[in-house]
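Thread: Newbie trying to understand structure tokens

Hi all, I'm a second-year student working on a class project, and my supervisor (Dr. K.) asked me to get a predicted structure for one chain before our next meeting. I've only ever worked with sequences, so writing a 3D structure as a token string is new to me. If someone could post the tokens and maybe explain what I'm looking at, I'd be very grateful. Here's the chain:
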Amino acid sequence: MSETTDQALSDQLPEGGFPPPPELAASANAGPDVHERAAADRIGFWEDAARRLDWAEPWEQALDWSNPPFAKWFVGGKLNVAVNCVDRHVDAGHGDQVAYHWVGEPGDTRTLTYAQLKDEVCRTANALSELGVTAGDRVAIYLPMIPEAVISMLACARIGAVHMVVFGGFSPDALASRITDADAKVVITADGGYRRGAPSPLKPNVDEALTKTEGVRSVLVVKRTETDVEWTEGRDVWWHELVAGQSAEHEAQAFDAEHPLYIMYTSGTTAKPKGILHTSGGYLTQVSYTHWATFDLKPDTDVFWTAADVGWVTGHSYIVYGPLANRATSVMYEGTPETPHRGRWWEIVQQYGVTILYTAPTTIRTFMKWGDDVPAGFDLSSLRLLGSVGEPINPEAWLWYHKNIGGSRCPIVDTWWQTETGGHMITPLPGTTTLKPGSAQRPFPGIAASVVDEEGKPIEPGATGYLVLTEPWPAMLRTIWGDDERYKDTYWSRYGQGVYFAGDGAKLDDDGDIWLLGRVDDVMNVSGHRISTTEVESALVSHPTVAEAAVVGATDPTTGQGIVAFVILRGDAVDSGEDLVKVLRQHVRKEIGPIASPRQIMVVAELPKTRSGKIMRRLLRDIAENRELGDVSTLTDSSVMDLISSKLPAAPSED
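---
Reply by user tm_fold:
Sure, no problem. This is what the structure looks like when written as tokens:
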């Protein structure tokens, strides 16, 4: 965020930022000395975090970094991830505590206690064993947001199988490529799920995917929508027929700390997706500890809701493994925020007394667009902490979230991390950090992060550079599945051995706090000036007419790149055509400076987004440069691109 944008928001900010609420600070899980303790003995700090878990055998060496970039954590230690997430809480007398309040989109609900979850996980583990799944086998999970998704993941972890969850919105081709790459032998799916008020098919996608890949011998199908599906005898089996008849007893085996837990596929610069591999001991240590510290989780009183999908890493780490390891009571919701009405989320917060809510900036901006009156119609007084994840949050959205959802009393933890990092890496701590809207602020205790220049040298405060991680961390990816060379080239080659390049730009402010600027390819170079798309988007959204903005750099023969902005107006704003464009362009000039003035500003009804909520800037660049559109298969609604294309002027507007 620029100094001028800072100034524009200063009238909404208390001097010095937002300090922790005294009551929270007094009882915070992570107190004021936590960063100092971690800095004094980083490895010992993570060993203490690991001791929060139950180990069948202790580790002999906390970290083996003798062959970078291939790390091993808690070497020689053995544990069972599922036992740590479920059994140990039941054994300690907490079997009657609710693990999940599940809410289906049509309005159906289920409540699963820890004891019930343990029984279901054991039955499913026995069912998978009956299907021939053994430790080390890969199991693909392609399910909607239903409890069976969590149960399936834990059942795999219990028997040492490696789960590979594919988001239910992905196409048959995308599913097939992941099944092939992971060499999965079993697929767990459902007839369908509910999305925007209607059944959305899943089993037909699996059937089509399996015509394009070989090796899958069994498909386990949950009956969710009661829609008719094709059936392949000898391969397909109903969940309710196989799982329900299994014993609720299962003897769990302990696995090595470095035993693979899951593969998660993420997009890369090539057509082939990257299978990010996470292992057991280090991953569970970090997601458990970060969940406890970042969200100040009190398991006896909190109701925690990560409003994401288990198909993404946010769901793995902060719907499943982190919360369950900490004996949290969580909310899990199947559907979209506006089904059957735009207050659905706030209705759920009110009904279940949610105390901690964790969601993405793109969702917050959608709520802003819908208006303050929607959340105002519900009692949100149970909330005590808010979180943000997935992309840098612009200060305007931060302040709206703080005021309209948090009642101006809830700290917001703005977390930076990645599929590759496994858990939180840079985040405020709610009991100790004075918050700056838009900044993730400082590395989590025990994490070594730095902002460097092109040569890899640390930058001075006020400068912009590249975010790197300079020491290994417990939840880090271990490799790209089946491709160690790609792992080294992708993440560890830019700044030399042992330095992880995150792919994100960042800025240090005068206090040394970190402001994430998004992916490096989202940093534009205009006449030699590095300008963040996030910075320009924040300036646009700070104008009272703008609800949401997406900015891209388009090739320009004069300046190298020209700034092209796509904006969605707030509900009561009027599109006055070129007059509005001039007003917005002048507003950006005022907020950031003339160099950031957009070459083009287009008012659009919607932006192209993936099903995880991320804006597809690659497609917007195609539009801005009059290129043929690239792959639109991962968009929620590909017709959005036709609407935007139809508005593209023949030549860029200048003034």
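A couple of things are worth pointing out once you decode it. Residues 618 and 633 are 13 Å apart (CA to CA). The chain has 21 helices and 30 strands. Feel free to ask follow-ups in this thread.
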